[in-house]
């Protein structure tokens, strides 16, 4: 799995619609797009949706990749545990 952090030129209402549309794609596991800060985080399965295909879907919003990392399923599940997110516990 791949986690992409990027900046998008998108307005808040459009960000909400875009987040919804991307979240319907079975290749995406987590989609967060903030139209106020213009930041997006998308976790997706590159075996089902390539990075190029994802960037093509976002081309109207002029995506600029700020960070990229590869995650295992275990890392994704662990990062999803609410107690880890709320308390900010690392590793």
Structure description:
The longest helix is centred in the first third of the chain and has 12 residues, at 12-23. This protein has a single domain, classed as Alpha-Beta Plaits. The protein has helices at 12-23, 51-57, 73-80, 82-87, and strands at 2-7, 28-34, 39-44, 64-70. The protein has a four-stranded antiparallel sheet with strand order 2-3-1-4. By secondary structure, the protein is α+β, with helices and mostly antiparallel strands. The protein is built from four helices and four strands, in the order E-H-E-E-H-E-H-H.
Question: Brief overview, please?
Answer:
The chain is of the alpha+beta class and about 90 residues long. About 35% of the residues lie in helices and about 30% in strands.
């Amino acid at each position: 799995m791949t986690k992409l952090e990027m900046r998008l030129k998108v307005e808040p209402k459009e960000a909400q619609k875009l987040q919804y549309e991307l979240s319907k794609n079975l290749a995406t596991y987590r989609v967060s797009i903030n139209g106020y800060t213009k930041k997006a985080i998308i976790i997706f399965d590159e075996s089902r949706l390539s990075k190029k295909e994802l960037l093509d879907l976002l081309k109207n919003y002029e995506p600029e990749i700020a960070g990229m990392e590869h995650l295992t399923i275990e890392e994704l599940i662990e990062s999803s545990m609410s107690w880890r997110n709320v308390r900010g516990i690392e590793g």
